[in-house]
Amino acid sequence: MQPAVLFRTLTAGLLAALLTAAPALAQEKGQDKDQAGKLDKVSFGTNWVAEAEHGGFFQAVADGTYQKYGLDVTIVPGGPNVNNRMLLISGKLDFFMAANSLMSLDAVTNNVPVVSVAAIFQKDPQVFLTHPESRVSKLEDLKPLTLFISKEGITSYFQWLKSEYGFNEKNVKPYTFNPQPFIATAQSAMQGYATSEPYAVEKAAGFKPGVLLLADYGFDDYSTLIETRIDLVQKKPDLVQRFVDASVIGWYNYLYGDNAPGNAMIKKLNPEMTDELLAYSVAKMKEYGIVDSGDTLKNGVGAMTDERVTSFFAKMVKAGVVKPDIDYRKSYTLRFVNKGVGIELRPQK
């Protein structure tokens, strides 16, 4: 997940302190030492500092869901100077929160022995923010505007915008995760996440930006995937299944139940997270169907399908982002998802 403006920054010293505190979090679930000894110890690394976008995982620790599945889970937050994926590959972590499907495809390209076992976000939260006076109502309306895009965005979703919608780089300027250039330029648009940047801009600039979610225009990658090593899938499939199932339950509880326990853990790790921002992020995840929409309505949170992965792979090949000859089916497995786990926890309409 790309760093968001204002709310996803930590000094190296604070981050180190948080990481030092992280292992203790698993002991806040109420089990005694004898009981804890009977649980399978599991470590899970996120890809950024604690925030609502990780809420279901923290909820599963805080409300005892992981414990109910026989797991003693330690969540290790990521950050600007932390490479939790490398710790996964080296065997120091058991699971990792991959930002998007492109990471999974890159792993196949480079023969990295990891595989995605669940997709928590059905929609990538990537958006463009616009000024109200620019009267943008659809994606194509962005073409004449100055576009503030990060270097990571240029090499990924912007290549898709070029191939699918005919965008070009002539109006692109570097986005450095500072909203001020966007705020100061009325005829501009800025990349962001639906769950955070609109809130940050409204607080900083006093206007409510327009929001265009790329997923609603065909950018159909998965996001916030649970990734693990291939050897763990082969040697301990029951452990993988329990971690996936408990994480899914955690996400249902975080979105639809009492998420105060999960939010308390997030705020302890990241004091920058306010109740207002956490509530905003959860509301936007629901509004846009980030976690629970499409295939999850039948198959449950975490769902993946061959058709969806194939569609995204084809788009990335067309955009020149990935090579056409890689075996993209090695990037994921459906073995642990699509089982309807936790569906009963979704509120009935």
Tell me what you see in this structure.
It is globular and about 60 Å long. The protein has 16 helices and ten strands. By secondary structure, the protein is α/β, with parallel strands linked by helices. The chain has a five-stranded mixed β-sheet. A five-stranded mixed β-sheet has the order 7-6-8-5-9. Helix 3 crosses helix 12 (237-256) and helix 3 (55-62) packs across helix 13 (260-269). Residues 1-36 have low confidence and may be disordered. The protein has two domains: 12-122 and 221-345, Periplasmic binding protein-like II (D-Maltodextrin-Binding Protein, domain 2), CATH 3.40.190; 126-217, 3-Layer(aba) Sandwich (D-Maltodextrin-Binding Protein, domain 2).
Give the SSE layout.
Elements: H1 12-21, H2 33-36, E1 40-45, H3 55-62, H4 65-68, E2 71-76, H5 84-89, E3 95-100, H6 101-109, E4 114-121, E5 126-130, E6 146-149, H7 151-154, H8 157-165, E7 172-174, H9 180-184, E8 188-193, H10 197-205, E9 210-213, E10 223-229, H11 230-235, H12 237-256, H13 260-269, H14 275-287, H15 296-299, H16 306-318
Parallel strand pairs: 1-2, 1-3, 6-7, 6-8
Antiparallel strand pairs: 3-10, 4-10, 5-8, 5-9
Helix pairs in contact: 3-12, 3-13
Based on DSSP secondary structure assignment, what is the total number of beta strands?
A: 10
Helix content: 25-40%
Number of domains: 2
- CATH fold label of the largest domain: D-Maltodextrin-Binding Protein, domain 2
Secondary-structure element order, as H and E? HHEHHEHEHEEEHHEHEHEEHHHHHH
Structural class: alpha/beta
CATH architecture title of the largest domain: 3-Layer(aba) Sandwich
Please state how the strands of the largest beta sheet are arranged side by side: 2-1-3-10-4
Query: At the fourth CATH level, what is the homologous superfamily of the largest domain?
Result: Periplasmic binding protein-like II
**What is the averaged pLDDT score?**
91
Distance separating the two termini: 31 Å
Largest β-sheet summary:
5 strands, mixed
Overall body shape: globular
Query: What Rg, in angstroms, do the CA atoms define?
Result: 20 Å
- How many DSSP helices? 16
Report strand %: 15-25%
The CATH class assignment of the largest domain is Alpha Beta
* Poorly predicted tracts of residues: 1-36
